[in-house]
Amino acid sequence: PAxxxxxxxxxxxxxxxxxxGHLTPEAVEILFGKGHTLTPMKELYQDGYYxxxxxxxxxxxxxxxxSNLRILGPCRSINQVELAYTDAISLGFDVPLxxxxxxxxxxxxxxxxxxxFFEMPQGVIRAMRHVHMNAExxxxxxxxxxxxxxxxxxxxxxxxxxxLLVRVDPTFKLEVHIDTDEGN
Length: 184
Hints:
By secondary structure, the protein is mainly beta. It has 4 helices and 14 strands.
């Protein structure tokens, strides 16, 4: 984005976040082979994050599967799969709506990669819609971490999205994340 003048809002980007997984380095090695690390394929809007070349097969309840589940990098300290509500229904999951990283008490799944299987005892969620922003943007919009915002989308098919959770970090650029169901 172009630089902005002092006191002006940052340009807002709305991104549709498709189903994906986050893995620990240990899970990457089990799924892709000893010593394997994630290979960046495409940079994401937030600096330092990327869609990796690596993909896995997610095996859900009743042996239903999603092939080619994209892994996002860099690696994290927990394993997590984020699905849209319709993905979860199709697979047979009853997934809670959670903020990324809050996986306590969530369902697990089996992941299959080219080098092996990895069982996640928990970590399958439907990600809450949220907005990333830095402290300057938070001050401009008069919000703090954990607040909820509304997003109004204009046009002939306009709509309102309520309850966008505010996430603030010095490295964040102003961006809303919604899932594919909300995007459609």
